[in-house]
């Protein structure tokens, strides 16, 4: 079985806020599971929130713009 993370654990692992985890999971459509009243993020979803390439400043700005909804 795949390792599961709470939102707080995922945020700590990626060194971002819990709100950023919400935004990224919604934007990227990653798998999230509800266990009782709590959400769990599989390790593959958390790792999927990372990009493996260097972003140009333009790409970086587009992502930030999308995340903050501006």
Summarize this structure briefly.
The chain has 70 residues and is α+β, with helices and mostly antiparallel strands. It has helices at 7-14, 18-28, 43-48, 57-68, and strands spanning 4-5, 33-35, 38-42.
What are its keywords?
70 residues, 3-stranded antiparallel sheet, 3 strands
Rounded Rg: 13 Å
Number of domains: 1
Biggest β-sheet description? 3 strands, antiparallel
Count of DSSP strands: 3
Strand % is 5-15%
**Any idea what the shape is?**
elongated
The SS-based structural class is alpha+beta
Low-confidence stretches: none
What order do the SSEs take from the amino end to the carboxyl end, as H and E? Answer: EHHEEHH
Bin the helical content: 40-55%
Strand order of the largest sheet: 1-3-2
Distance between the termini: 39 Å
Oligomer: single chain
Average pLDDT score: 85
**How many helices in DSSP terms?**
4
Show the helix and strand layout:
Elements: E1 4-5, H1 7-14, H2 18-28, E2 33-35, E3 38-42, H3 43-48, H4 57-68
Helix pairs in contact: 1-2
Protein architecture, described:
This protein has 4 helices and 3 strands, in the order E-H-H-E-E-H-H. It has helices spanning 7-14, 18-28, 43-48, 57-68, and strands at residues 4-5, 33-35, 38-42. The protein has a 3-stranded antiparallel β-sheet with strand order 1-3-2. Helices cover 53% and strands 14% of the residues. Helix 1 crosses helix 2 (18-28). The mean pLDDT is 85. The relative contact order is 0.19. The protein has one domain. The protein is an alpha+beta fold and 70 residues long. The longest helix has 12 residues, at 57-68.
